[in-house]
């Protein structure tokens, strides 16, 4: 696994993030397996990045990632010896958290509208 233009392409991830779900999440499971087993810092960096992009562009990505055990592996790499792996793991975790905050923000807006409508 190596960096290629598609890894950094917003259009690619927007159009293809859901494809990681095909064949019972086969590609996503491969990425998680790489996070578990690989010692190659380039592979770990790319896998963290791809998982972050998946969670950013697939609305249920965070839940799927948690169910497959991927979140724990991304978080483990926050303390990796290599700074590039740590950086990509941090970005992936941020994407997971932003998704949470966006959801909470929408809930707050919804609750505020319902409260306003009642008064």
Could you say which overall geometry the principal axes of the C-alpha atoms support? elongated
Spans of 5+ residues with little confidence (pLDDT < 50)? none
Rg result: 16 Å
Distance between the termini: 57 Å
Structural class: mainly alpha
Largest sheet report: none
What count of helical segments does DSSP give? 6
The proportion of residues forming helix, as a percent range, comes to over 70%
> Which band does the percent of strand residues land in?
under 5%
Give the overall average pLDDT: 85
The tally of beta strands, per DSSP, is 0
State the order of secondary-structure elements, H for helix, E for strand.
Answer: HHHHHH
InterPro entries: ARM-type_fold (IPR016024), ATPase_V1-cplx_hsu (IPR004908), ATPase_V1-cplx_hsu_C (IPR011987), ATPase_V1-cplx_hsu_C_sf (IPR038497)
Organism: Cherax quadricarinatus
GO cellular component, one term: vacuolar proton-transporting V-type ATPase, V1 domain
GO molecular function, one term: proton-transporting ATPase activity, rotational mechanism
Verbal overview:
It is a single chain. Helix content is 76%, strand content 0%. It has 119 residues and is mainly α. The mean pLDDT is 85. The protein starts with 9 loop residues before the first helix and ends with a helix.
Give the topology, please.
Layout: H1 10-16, H2 22-37, H3 41-57, H4 61-67, H5 70-76, H6 83-118
Helix pairs in contact: 2-3, 3-6, 5-6
GO molecular function: proton-transporting ATPase activity, rotational mechanism
Organism: Cherax quadricarinatus (Australian red claw crayfish)
Protein name: ATPase V1 complex subunit H C-terminal domain-containing protein
């Amino acid at each position: 696994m190596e960096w290629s233009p598609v890894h950094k392409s917003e259009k690619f991830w927007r159009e293809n993030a859901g494809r990681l779900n095909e064949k019972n999440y086969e590609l996503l499971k491969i990425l998680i397996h790489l996070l578990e087993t690989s010692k190659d810092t380039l592979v770990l960096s790319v896998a963290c990045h791809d998982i972050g992009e998946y969670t950013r562009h697939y609305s249920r990505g965070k839940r799927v990632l948690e169910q497959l055990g991927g979140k724990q592996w991304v978080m483990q790499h926050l303390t990796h010896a290599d700074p590039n792996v740590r950086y990509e793991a941090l970005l992936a975790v941020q994407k997971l958290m932003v998704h949470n905050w966006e959801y909470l923000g929408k809930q707050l807006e919804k609750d505020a509208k319902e409260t306003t409508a009642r008064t």
